[in-house]
Amino acid sequence: MSDIQQSFPWLKASWSQLNRYISLNRVPQALLIVGNKGMGKQQLTSYFSQSLLCHTPLSNGTYCGECQSCLLFDAQTHPDYINIEPEESGKVIGIDIIRQLISSLALKPQYEGYRIVVINPADSLNNASANAFLKYLEEPTERTLIILLTNKPNKLPATIRSRCQKLVIPPVEDNELLKIWSEHNGLSENRKLLLNLSQGAPLLAKQFSESVLLKDRSDSFNQWFKISHSESNLIVTAEQWSKLAIDEARILIMWVISWVVDIIKLSYKSDPSSLYNPDLAISLQEIAVKLDLKSMYQYYDFLLLSQQRLDTQLNKQLIFEEILIQWSKLNGR
Question: pTM value?
Answer without folding.
Answer: 0.82
